Amino acid sequence: MSSNNNSxxxxxxxxxxxxxxxxxxxxRFIDGDESTFRLLVQRHQEKIRNIIYLVLSDxxxxxxIAQEVMITIYKNLKNFRFESQFTTWFYRITVNKCKDxxxxxxVRKIFVPxxxxxxxxxxxxxxxxxxISEIVMDAISKLPVKLRVPLLLKDIEGFSYQEIAQTINCxxxxxxxxxxxxxxxxxxxxxxxxxxxS
Amino acid sequence: xxxxxxxxxxxxxxxxxxxxxxxxxxxxxKIKSSLELQKKLEDLQQIKKLTSSSFKTLxxxxxxxxxxxxxxxxxxxxYKRVFRWSPAIGLGAITIILMVILKFNPDVIxxxxxxxxxxxxxxxxENLQPLLFAADLNNExxxxxxxxxxxxxxxxxxxxxxxxYDDAGKEFVEIKNLDIVQxxxxxxxxxxxxxxxxxxxxxxxxxxxxxxxxxETQILVNTNNTVAINSNLWNYQRAIQSxxxxxxENFNEKxxxxxxxxxxxxxxxxxxxxxxxxxxTAQNNNYIILTPDSIFSENIEFDLEEYKSFxxxxxxxxxxxxxxLKGKEIELKVKVGRLNAINFHRYDSSWKxxxxxxxxxxxxxxxxxxxxxxxxxxxxxxxxxxxxxxxxLFSAFDSVANNFKxxxxxxxxxxxxxxxxxxxxxxxxxxSFEFKYRVQFDTDSLLETHSELMDSLKYxxxxxxxxxxxxxxxxxxxxxxxxxxxxxxxxxxxxxMKELKKELTQFRLEMKDWKKKFKRQFKSHDxxxxxx
Lengths: 198, 532
Hints:
A: mainly alpha; 2 domains; 12 helices; 78% helix; B: 5 domains; 5-stranded antiparallel beta sheet; 13 strands; elongated
């Protein structure tokens, strides 16, 4: 009996729901079961935190921004229209929050007294970077955001070009070009440290 | 984009597994035949390897979930949501409250404005004190007020308050700076003209003193630059004027009628006596209050007795402290400062700000010129004295006052001598003097001078006009030249000058005739006076 019911439910569910299990959780949330949000958080929080860290290269702000992302998701989940994958929507919000943060940070920089700013600069530049992965991550952080994000989503998170295009809201051709340019840029940045990397 | 770069991008996408099988096949063919592509593929592989292997995942955040759901719960609280809308809700609520209030009590805003007005009025009405004390008025000032309707506003006599009536008979008040030379000692001249004895002078002084006391509450001033004028003051001036003239007539009727027509008699007119009695006993607390930024009328309950008692105490305190502080210079200065503050009154130029919005209820009209500020009391109900022929009676009083002024100052007795006239001012015996003026019109010499001037112009070389060594004129020469056409040889100026010379010759002849006639008339006039 119960198996019959399940098969009926599967039949009436839209095709897309089968592709992404997140959809069923979202649907239950929309129907009033807010406890499913906890499951969504548990499922995606590490990914979200890592993406934020990759984009910003600053572990101190990761949790705060991740919380902002989750709260935004929570507030807007009832408006989710099932037109794209849940994760794509989720990641787009995350990347946008990171961009907001960087924008605000750049604005704040303008108002930081010159002395304080130079002290900060000295602190980061004097940090000794010995580990290869640290050298590479440091080099990646020097790339512009628009090149850095597609590269990391591809090489670290394993997104397809299509997923990246949906996440950062651009064409696939653009993603292909940006990833190549990011790799070229990275090569130039790492050139002086070739001996350490080999 | 260059073909090579496009191939490089394809290599990058190839490494990411994002090419179709066909694209992969074509690219592989190209790589086989191109060392450059092989090298590039190697580089890109190395970079991809580095980036893919370099990232170390973040350690878990143990309290992430707890904190997140605490924040979400907090945001769920209803009033937090409401709080976001509080500005809009507040605005809406205020609008509704205002609508309800205005519906049931439409005058609330006017009442609020009136409340504010009364607060401002309260500020300006603070510490009002009699002008007589502030400006230290003496008998001369009171006499001038009675006769000429003006009182000084400060101890230095730099500003005066002047009452009057416009052509329509409505009252006005002026506050003016008196830069022009004022006649002095009018009261003394008045007493002299009446030739009063010592006892009569004492009586006249006592009348004036009595009025001075009553006048105290009629004009009030304070350090907030406020002047409060009792709306009965115009009538009061008339009362003092009529009383003084009546007494003058009683004291010395003969002398009095030197400047008053014999038919006019005030002392025998019962109306005058009534007027004086009525005005003096009338209680009027309504004051016209002139402040630096507004004009309004308010009732002021001024307790003269209380003020007098305060002044007595204050003077006693002052004298005590002055005695105690003799030799202590610094503390004495403090006391002097306090005195000055009380004596101070000065109407300042901020009054000019009132030009457009000065009157709260448009009862007053204000106008300015460089020397005075005039407030016309056009729509305000002034206290009226119901006596028959009141206005005509007082216009008679005013003309008497003017006659006296004219009599004592301007009408000399003229004595004609041969070529001299003597002016005798008899009205003021103590200050009587002779004014000699030699009449000698030398018309011939005058005309001669003019004629010479005209001739000199004839020979003036206008072409040398620019050679004037005059820096002031130099700048104006081009303008002069344009205006007068000096450089035109056949200019109209020459023709006009010829005409002018002709007219002057004619005038010279006429003046000669006139001179002869004048001498003849002069002699016959003197002869007639001698005969009489």
